[in-house]
């Protein structure tokens, strides 16, 4: 009987959140790679709940050679914790039932870590049905809850979740991380797992490439042509510490340096706080924009001279920013506000694709920006290196081939 590679993810097309976008590309890519193999590609996912919330997608359909199976769940408001919990419980129940009926002995199951209960449910179903489990780690729990202040590493909830996570890592057949720092953190928890932990990086969208500034629809947002435009785009959540950018902008303005413009574009819980700080400090150099659709990302990133990716302290190994690869593909150098051992910092340093500054130190960031401003002619070389790295090292073809080789391995 033909075997199946299963992609198990709550988020999938037509949702366009980052996880949905990546998992859809993995499924489509594996379907192409598996055309001449004994494996077919199937997906178990939820109905659209994020960017396409409210849209009713078919319970079963075949798209690009991928068999998509969507599960029912409650769709209460995510703003209330109890109602959100009910949503998670119902989707886990329907996922488990679907997996029990669909998995077969010898199948391969690729499950992502979001939402946190999903890998446990998928691994149990796979073991009961004789399938193999491949865990794709996008975020490491419960570690991600500590820097954001949700819990402390000495707390009982942390210890319970950490114990369960270690057991999960031991029970799956293979573990895939999206960064070297993430692999190191996994091995800190389970030193004996080295042989079954792989690193497969994310990649840039196919359509991501530099857009000339004279043809750029966002040119009007960048101010004077002589200004150095630094952009932050994407999720503005608890882990991103955007206060450091506002504080650095304030330092430059206090020094009378107005040749720098900060473009802030995104969404998330930290956006209102950023707006409030900019208002209180009366910052003239910061412009805050609404999110843009995915098809406008290349133009948005290309409108800037530099992109900035910011994290709060102690995030190394916990999360790897997938936006990094789109930024590189658009030929935009990066300022990474991150620890030096993070995947972001290592990627920047490996090929000299930008600069690294320590989290929590706005004075250092301000000094770095002044240094870059004074050496603007060198930016063209950085831009070339970024584009080369994206089109040679961090390609979708490389990553999909790595997924295929791992999942189809006998």
In words, what does this structure look like?
The protein has 410 residues and is an alpha/beta fold. The protein has two domains: 213 residues, 3-Layer(aba) Sandwich (Rossmann fold); 180 residues, Rossmann fold (3-Layer(aba) Sandwich), CATH 3.40.50. 39% of the residues lie in helices and 18% in strands. The chain has 13 helices and 14 strands. The protein has an eight-stranded mixed sheet, sandwiched between helices. A six-stranded parallel sheet has the order 11-10-9-12-13-14, sandwiched between helices. Helix 1 links the parallel strand 1 and strand 2. Helix 9 crosses helix 12. The mean pLDDT is 93.
| Proportion of helical residues | 25-40%
The biggest sheet amounts to: 8 strands, mixed
Detail the poorly predicted runs. Answer: none
Total helical elements: 13
**Looking at the structure, what is the overall shape?**
globular
Examine the secondary-structure arrangement and name the CATH architecture of the largest domain.
3-Layer(aba) Sandwich
What order do the helices and strands come in, and which of them pair?
Elements: E1 3-8, H1 18-33, E2 39-46, E3 60-63, E4 66-71, H2 81-102, E5 108-112, H3 118-129, E6 132-137, H4 156-171, E7 174-177, H5 180-189, E8 197-199, E9 228-235, H6 243-254, E10 260-267, H7 271-280, E11 286-289, H8 297-302, E12 306-310, H9 323-329, E13 334-337, H10 343-350, E14 354-357, H11 362-374, H12 379-392, H13 396-407
Parallel strand pairs: 1-2, 1-5, 2-4, 5-6, 6-7, 7-8, 9-10, 9-12, 10-11, 12-13, 13-14
Antiparallel strand pairs: 3-4
Helix pairs in contact: 1-13, 2-3, 6-11, 9-12
């Amino acid at each position: 009987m033909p075997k199946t590679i299963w992609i198990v993810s709550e988020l999938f097309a037509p949702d366009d959140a980052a996880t949905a976008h990546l998992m859809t590309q993995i499924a489509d890519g594996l379907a192409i790679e598996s055309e001449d193999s004994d494996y077919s590609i199937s997906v178990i996912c939820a109905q659209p709940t994020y960017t396409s919330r409210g849209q009713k997608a078919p319970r079963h359909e075949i798209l690009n050679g991928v068999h998509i199976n969507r599960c029912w769940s409650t769709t209460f408001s995510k703003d209330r914790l109890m109602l959100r919990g009910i949503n998670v419980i119902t989707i886990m129940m329907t996922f488990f039932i679907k997996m029990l009926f669909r998995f077969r002995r010898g199948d391969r199951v690729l499950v992502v870590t979001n939402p946190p209960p999903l890998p446990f449910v998928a691994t149990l179903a796979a073991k009961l049905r004789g399938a193999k489990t491949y865990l794709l780690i996008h975020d490491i729990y419960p570690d991600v809850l500590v820097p954001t202040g949700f819990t402390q590493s000495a707390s009982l909830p942390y210890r319970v979740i950490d114990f369960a996570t270690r057991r999960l890592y031991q029970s799956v057949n293979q573990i895939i991380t999206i960064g070297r720092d993430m692999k190191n953190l996994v091995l800190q928890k389970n030193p004996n797992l080295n042989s079954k932990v792989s690193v497969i990086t994310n990649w840039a969208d196919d359509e991501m490439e530099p857009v000339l500034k004279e043809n750029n629809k966002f040119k009007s947002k960048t101010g004077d042509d002589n200004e150095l435009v630094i952009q932050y785009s994407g999720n503005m959540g608890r882990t991103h510490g955007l206060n450091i950018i506002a504080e650095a902008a304030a330092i430059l303005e206090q020094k009378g340096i107005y040749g720098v413009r900060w473009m802030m574009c995104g969404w998330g819980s930290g956006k209102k706080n950023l707006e409030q700080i900019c208002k209180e400090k009366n910052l003239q150099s910061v412009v805050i924009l609404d999110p843009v659709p995915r098809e406008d990302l290349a133009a948005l990133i290309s409108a800037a001279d530099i992109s900035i990716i910011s994290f709060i302290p102690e995030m190394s190994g916990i999360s790897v920013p997938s936006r990094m690869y789109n930024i590189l593909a658009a030929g935009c150098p990066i300022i990474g506000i991150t620890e030096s051992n993070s995947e972001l910092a290592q990627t920047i340093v490996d090929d000299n694709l930008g600069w690294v500054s320590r989290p929590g130190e706005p004075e250092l960031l301000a000094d770095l920006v002044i240094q870059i401003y004074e050496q603007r002619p060198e930016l063209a070389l950085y831009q070339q290196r970024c584009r080369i790295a994206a089109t040679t090292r961090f390609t979708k073809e490389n990553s999909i081939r790595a997924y295929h080789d791992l999942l189809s391995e006998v």
